Amino acid sequence: MNLVHIFLAIGFFAGVVQQNQHIQVLKGHEWSVTTLDINKGGDMLLSGGWDNTMILWDLSNDSILYKFNNHSDMIWDVAFSPDERYVASASWDASINLWDIETKELVFRFKHAQKFRFTQTEPFYQERMVPNMVNTIAFSPDGRLLASGSSDGIIRIWDLT
After folding, report:
1. Tens digit of each residue's pLDDT (9 = 90 or more) over 77-115
2. Nearest to 113 by CA among 76, 148, 74
3. What's the 3-state SS for 37-101?
4. Looking at CB atoms within 10 Å, which of 30, 81, 84, 140 has the fewest?
5. DSSP label at 9?
6. Is the pTM value of this prediction over 0.85?
7. Phi and psi (nearest 5°) for 7?
């Protein structure tokens, strides 16, 4: 790449940055936001964060539709079900909450084992029990299954039927 190409690339990216400014600002979490998901229609957004809450947003008017509160620790992942009837949140409290969007009711709470045995190799060389945090979730395309991954290195598949 010669200098002309470099200057053209810099000019192009500078133009992209200037043209692609954010178009909305949503404020509702009291602490860091850790995860986001947008529904298929692009009119709703889910957010989760360090304040132990998941928020359902209406993107057409930048408003909070509902703030879900049922975790005792940080939320690390959120997801819309494929049919968009449900939302799910994964938390470091070792649980996954499944909510009905219409009624805002908790449908089910999936629990991972609270702790798991971990052998620390450095610097203390000891075995200890550590919290089992749920880090990620995903719905199957047909919405019948929910997969979760946690800090114990295990992927769990949950049957939603």
Report:
1. 999 999 999 999 999 888 999 999 999 999 998 887 766
2. 148
3. EECCCCCEEEEEECCCEEEEEECCCCEEEEEEECCCCCEEEEEECCCCCEEEEEECCCEEEEEEC
4. 30
5. H
6. no
7. -65, -40
